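INFO batch 0412 | record 1 of 1 | parsing
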Amino acid sequence: METTFTFKGSEENIPENDDLSRDVFRDEYDKDIQGIPWETDAMPFSRSYLRSRRSINYRSFRNKNDPLTLIDCTKNENCCFFEFNANHPQARCMYRHFQLRDCLLAISSNNVLHLKSPNELRLYNPISRDSKRVLYSKSPLVSFHSLQDYVVSGGLEGELFLSDIEGNLLKDIIVADTDSTKITNCCKLFDNRGKINIMSCNNDKKIRILDPDYMEPIFMYELPAPVNGGAISPDRKLIATVVDEEQDYIIDYESGKVRYILKGHQDFGFGVQWHPKNEFYLATGNQDKSVMIWDIRMGPELSPVYTLCGKVGSILNLKFSENGEFLAFAESADFVRICDTRNYEETQVIDVFGEISGITFSPEENCPYFFIGMADESFSSLMEFRKYEIIDF
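INFO prediction complete | emitting tokens
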């Protein structure tokens, strides 16, 4: 007979009489930052026991099956840049698509957008703990972004919704209607010389730049594979993309021509962002469990200048802080890392349990808060961390 406990997305069967010894320290319910009641009837295992089993048994999805040969540049994983501040189980977080995990966005320290269900996008205030609906869609949502008072959301059937932060739907269209390749994998709002535009990245291999007044494409580019994510450079001249290929592409914003090819990853890419303070640097996240940092000054065919590796899962979501001081990246489950961008060697590892729906820094210049969306069926929540400050006496 076996006793089975399953966090969403994992496949763990833990025998009752396993040879691994249990931790003698008993975690109390109020001491666990997620509220997991270790070694109780509800959770009959110690934290260390379950961590050892999940580290062995968790299987992250990959499209490629070749052995990974990546070298991590991290030298110190014991840093503390952000400290735990609060858990918000009332702000249930989730995701709809197993590979699309950019489902959390702080628009201020007091307002965080998150998916509460596959069809509902909500705005949560961590201070007052109030919540309000921003969008409800008949079909599942998989991506969203916000700028000023606007929110754009992408759907599983190729939809694009534009609403305001108060929950009023302004416009909606189907941007991709090709059979079986419709998904709006990524959508972004950006300021283009004082005018707000929309970028939509879809499974039909296309990137579209749209005018929100008419929801019509201004530019449309086609890439060699489905486009899982895109990021526009700070100078608005380039678009970095991650696609269903081992290599990624940076294209010219106006012509759509490929300017750079990024070679180094060993699976499909899902996370991408430019450094906010250095127009030459960008980061990509991949199903090969790695993040790579690139410097476009190195030529048209790029190799990574830094490689950062995860433990158990694909890197599906990454974010730079507004001041560029930190890069955070989340594995599909259990681990989030926050790196010092001065040399990418100093890292804080946040060890949690459950599938991760997204991560986000608060957008202020000093980035005082950091949030993690936990999508576990039993312990779904929004986790809040505060920037650690050394106080001199």
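INFO post-check: Residues 47-57 form the longest helix (11 residues).
INFO record closed
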